Amino acid sequence: MNKAIVISAMAAVSSLAVAQTSVIDVNVANAQKGAKIQSTMYGLFFEDINYAADGGLYAEMVKNRSFEFPQALMGWKTYGNVEVRTDGAPFERNPHYVRLSSSGHAHKHTGIENEGFFGVSTVKGNEYKFSVWARALNADAKIRVELDDPASMGETQVTGQAEIIVSGKEWKKYTATIKSDSDVKKGLLRVFLVGDNGVDLEHVSLFPAETFKGRENGLRADLAQALCDIHPGVFRFPGGCIVEGTDLNSRYQWKNSVGAVENRPLNENRWHYTFPHRFYPDYYQSYGLGFYEFFLLSEDMGAEPLPVVSCGLACQFQNETEEAHVPVEDLQPYIQDALDLIEFANGDKSTKWGALRAEMGHPEPFNLKLIGVGNEQWGETFPKHLEPFVKAIRAAYPNIRIVGTSGPDSEGAQFDYLWPEMKRLGADLVDEHFYRPETWFLSQGNRYDKYDRKGPKVFAGEYACHGKGKKWNHFEASLLEAAFMTGLERNADVVHMATYAPLFAHVEGWQWRPDMIWYDNTRSFKSVSYYVQQLYAMNKGTNVLPATMNGKPVAGNLDQDGLFASAVYDAADGSYIVKVVNTASHDKDVDINLKGLKKKAISKCTLTLLHSDNGDADNTLDEPQKITPKTLDRPAAGNVIKTTVPAQSFHVYRIQVK
Prior knowledge:
It is built from eleven helices and 35 strands. By secondary structure, it is α/β, with parallel strands linked by helices.
């Protein structure tokens, strides 16, 4: 945290010169321990937008590695005698490969070079693993693989290299490890043909040697670790709108994302042309980060996997006619995809899809419990499409919980129509989405207080505060998200899951903001919204406790002057956790009164605070620790914690008792 911010926050905490004290009563009597908080309460949602997969979490550094983009050499430059071919490729669903033949002159060169995702970026001293499927045309052939810095002012552009002998006319996989001797931001990968003997190349790949958990075909270590550090309870994937596709041909198809990575076909990412004002025509999905990898990541994080499948409706924002969608009577292949997905996750090795999972390296089931059908669909057509999915899944897998949707709006005609329909169809959870401005978040503290306690549970599946006139990451927006989340927590009997969105954004390739985690090719930073989510996930407790002010929930009501609060009990260590958000522009004296405990029962209280004097500020690549949580001890008098909550701040009190 910025030193000046720390000093300011600590000074505010100890300040006594503030107006009238606000008393927050927390009833901690054992009889008052309320609703159970689900392990899935706070989680993560992955959507492949903003180069979140290829160029982001997926650690592959080569763009268009199998030459399958509609323009086969997009991302590549060629020199000398290079030919793109489709006859005799080793992988059925990726038929393109390149042939490198003699240039015909000793001082001319044949080869290919790849630009990577916003450059092939390397770190001095780090190792990189190159691999390629290749075959010699006649006699043994040689290729030289280079990491290059075209902007170098040194004697050579080469920052690391290796040579590979390709032998025989059969396709085989060849590998090499290359160490970079320089920090390079906008580098290239070059592959030269050495000598006159020709060679065919397919699936040209480069990964950092250090991937998350050291896995081949792995994830970028810093980004995956950042996800684990949140300690999420649920992980929704792979989207979002990419589940729908701009048309059904471009929808995400999970079966194409499993099996041998070299044989996973390219998919058109609907986001590459959705925003002409932020246009990325080279944004495709290699499916290298597929459903198997998503399930593994869920397991690594200790999160319940929540895969989402197409319900046969293409994106309704982009398709206004019924002809764009699958008729209900033709949905069986889509329903079978959903059933086969459950078998892939949970089936034993004797089943078709369970056997594939085992062959990929995970003999034990992933213990899938949740499945989402559809994304932000609306109107009468969605319940008609959802109903046969519900019937089929209930019949085959009665213990799987089904997630429906209330559409793209947080309220209104479609929202009001879909909720009763989800209840009628027996959906277990309803996915609500809200990207809204400051006024909405300030007004929603009591949103779930009057929800039907006997109906489907709520999954707040996509939300973020989009500041009016400043739709980017900044502290004030994150603070209002924290305030809103007190209402989620207080109503944990209704709200079972919540995930901020979107998750990732490349600083050179974003289309949507704000986002939780930002990065370039070698660095990353966590936004303030990340720390809000982390503080909730790591302090969610096990049971809700009543927390009131003036006899009402502390939810930013008119007589509460911008205060929001929630309280929970944590059975794991017997502690009490109180979260307080001050959205007002002035400091507040607050007494947290723990009713129901014996006198002087408090043995220790720690405070974690998130505060900034600049509401428009956030962390950056150059200042990744500018605004981060700060933890310190707090004194307690009897059963009361007297504190000052600075203007525009989020406090988490963890209280231990004797």
